[in-house]
């Protein structure tokens, strides 16, 4: 069965594969006190994110990711429909709330979106397990944090990937894009 849309992932992570510390701290990624500054791409810190977001129709994320983004001074997804999976969040006019991944998938499919940005550890994992991810862009920040949250873990089957490209940046970040193989 073909996926109802193509899920696309764009994540920053430590070299050891974590997207946040166990307590949710992101200072190692965003350039907090102990991190010695945010990663540098030599062009203002975008790492291709604006281009990526311009190519998607909508976003879906979990509550934890939304709670990191919600207080930002400028909403980074202006003009894009944002769907959040949560049973506890209060309504926010910038988002559409769903109580489960299945409910979100049904809504995204019904809306006719073709390419959806999937963000947040648990959400990425759930969509990978369901076969809804078509490509992953993983940006490895040159730091080992030892433990934390990962979008990867037990899956019902191996997810075979095809390398698309790898880029390196002046600050040492290595960004690799993979396409999920559908022939497996």
TrEMBL record:
Q: What is the lineage of its organism?
A: Bacteria, Bacillati, Actinomycetota, Actinomycetes, Geodermatophilales
What's the protein called, per UniProt? Dihydrofolate reductase
Could you state a single Gene Ontology molecular function term? 5-amino-6-(5-phosphoribosylamino)uracil reductase activity
Q: Which first-to-last residue range defines the signal peptide?
A: none
What organism does the record attribute this protein to?
Geodermatophilus obscurus
One GO BP annotation here? riboflavin biosynthetic process
Bacterial bifunctional deaminase-reductase C-terminal domain mapped to chain residues: 10-174
